Each structure stands twice: as C-alpha cells, then as structure tokens.
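Check out one such.
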Amino acid sequence: MLGCHFGKLFQVTVAGGSYQDGLSAIIQGVPPGMIFTEQEIYGDLLLRKPGTDELSSPRKEPDLPIIYTGLNAEDTIENAGNKNHTNGTPLSILIPNLDRHFTHIKQYQDTNRTPRPGHASYASFIKYGPDDDAIGAGIFSGRYTATIVAAGYVAKKILKKCGIKMFSYIKELACVQCPEIDHLKALKYTDSYKKMRCDYDPFYQEIYIKGRINMNMRLLEKMKVFAEIEKEIDAIRDKAPKSNPKQTEDKYGVHHILNCPDIKAAKEMTNACNKISATGDSAGGIVEVIVLGAPAGLGEPVFDKLDAELGRMLGIGAVKVVEIGAGFKLKDMTGSQSNDQMHSEKGKVIFDSNNAGGITGGLSTGQPIIIRLTVKPTPTINKKQHTIDKYTFENKELAAITRRDPTIVARVWPVAENYTAMILLDNLIAHYGYQNLKEEAGKNG
C-alpha cells in the first residue's frame, strides 16, 4: 500500500489498522540527545482517543504507546546520563489495539457486504478486492490518526525548543460558532483543557502516575502489563473521576467535554450535537490551528509552498476543506480589503491585518499561521440509507450497528495540531539548512 509515508527531512511512515494488532509510526529526522517518554506522548493521544464522553465513539481503546526503537537502552558509557535519550536512529512508536473483541468484529462482518455511504468502504473494496481490510475500515478508519498524533507530538516538542508553539481548538460544531478569541488567551485555555484531560483520564493516572509502566522497563515487561490492562479496561475506566461540569469549569476554567475557548459556545455546541445524535444522525464543524513564533521564510515556491503543504491535512479522515487565513471569505473582499498592509515600528515590520494567515507566496511571513479545517459529519450513522451489496450489486438499505461517533470534530483537533507540527518541522529543517548554506557561502564572497 502506497500513501502511508510523509515528509522529506522529517519523515513519518505509519502502518496498521483499526482491528489489526495495532498501529505504528516510524519517525526519521529526530535529533539525538532529546528525551521523550511514553507518558508525555500519551498525554496527547488521550485527547484523540474514543470512549471519553457522549460525543465520541464508545470504543474503549486506551491508546497506550510504546517507544520501541530510537532511544539508548543504557548509558553509552558508564554514568554518561544518556539512557533513554534519542540517538539519531529512527524512532518507532507502537500503539497496540486492546479493545478488539469478536462481538465487534462480528458486527462488521454482518454489515461489510453493504458499504457505508460517505465512508471509504466501497472505493477501498474496488481498489483492494475481497481481501480489503474491512474490519473496522482498517487504515481508512479514523483510528489511524493516532499515529499522526504520536509522531506529531515528537515534532511539536522539537519545534517548541526552537521557539515555535501551536495549538488547536473547535471553532464550530453543529452550526454553533466560537467567537473570535485572542491567540494567547486561546493558547492558555487549550493548555488548561489538556491538563484537565490528563487529570481526569483513568489510564493516565493508573498506568503512568502509579508507575505500572515506566521508561526503565524493557518491551516484554511492558507487554506483560499491557496483557493485564487488556483484561482490566472496564475496571480502570470505572476509576475515572466523574466529570462534573461546574467543578471542571471552576477548577480549570474549561468546558468538561469540548476544547472550545468560549465556554458558553461549548455548551451550545454540546447541546446542539446531542440533539442531532438523538435522531441517529451526526454533526460536522470546523477546527482551527494557530502557529505562533514561526520564522519568516518557511516554505518553498511552486509545488512545495507552505500553504500547499498544509493542504495535505486533507489526508485526515473526514476533513474536506483546508483554509489558510481568511480562506473562503476572501471571495467577498476587494484587493484593498484583503491585502495585509505593513509598516515599520522601531525597525520591526508590523502587519495591519492577517488575511493571508501568515503565508504569502507559499512562504511564512512571521505572523501567526492560521489554518482551519472543515470536518464533515461522521458517515457512520444510525439512520437507514440506500446502499448496495458490493458482491451482487443488489440495492440494499443500511443502518449502523457498529460503534460510532456523534461527531468527529471533537477528536480531530489534536490530529490537526500535531499534523501541522509535522509539516512545519519538515519545512523548518530545510529552512535551517538553506539559511546556514547561504551564510556559509556568503563568507567566501
């Protein structure tokens, strides 16, 4: 299968499927000497995983990662202090599937003859034939995005050390919009939201805070614990603190379910989505990503423009539109309205607006980079739809009996955030190389 590889200098290859033994991300381009722990990677994975609230699929996957390669197993010389440091070799992250039981597999077997409208199940069958990995939609399931979150976290941590921060949040859900929010205020909100999710996540507390898995354990030791966890999923989930909306708002200043930096809007989004879900249907929306601190000049002309690279996020399942800056609103503006005029203050360039979203000519301008992703409603719904029998081509009807998300929007924002990190780091490595080459060449006149 082609199409599972990303990047030129920061490279990621993903593999696995929804009901295979698990998923994996192999990452190249990670500098040596960095420290990554499974606990911190899981801190991002838990933001995407299912089964956490009424707006996500009831599937109970913990999404616990294992760093398999790329770290020093011991100090390279006695007392060097570089055990578990990255060593420049490919970093591999495994995410085993622990909630895959026959009862769920049977549900897919019973419905796989009839492709789900809006899903990849018909096109993938035509492409790959009867051996297509149709149990849980395989790599066409949204489950594969766990690999993007894991790899993107690595990129995001590297970028942060270079002074670049990014965050994402729900801009719109079920036709309810979040009002315009100051970037720094929204960043602070999303940081608080992430902390809340870690504090309330039972697996984060049970597995990492209690030390059942740690970075000094070997793979087989970890797998022994994973085999135990597989049998304890329900018991661990039962230990989760009950989410009290008011208590969460008072303690963390965030909504208890949605990462939307306006709590009033988040409440309205939740209510609107629940009303749609109660009819068996699903809702879509918009996710916004903001990048702060990116230097001017990232990107290349023509085919490798930075905004074109960000457009690769159409590869995220259910994303149908990627906008940069004012996006579709530009069609209703004049040139004088859309142009981001600039002036100088104390030797520093100041832009009067940011309709370009921090990118012109495919190169970053040094302004905040603003990306919006339109996410379609979950195609798997509990309403009868017209479809066919993919073997006989007879006309059929289908209503979902499998696990499903009332909306995907609430799980896409961490994918978008971390995918953006992968794209920016790939471009930043090239940018540093080009700028250094220009400087070295200039020394010799």
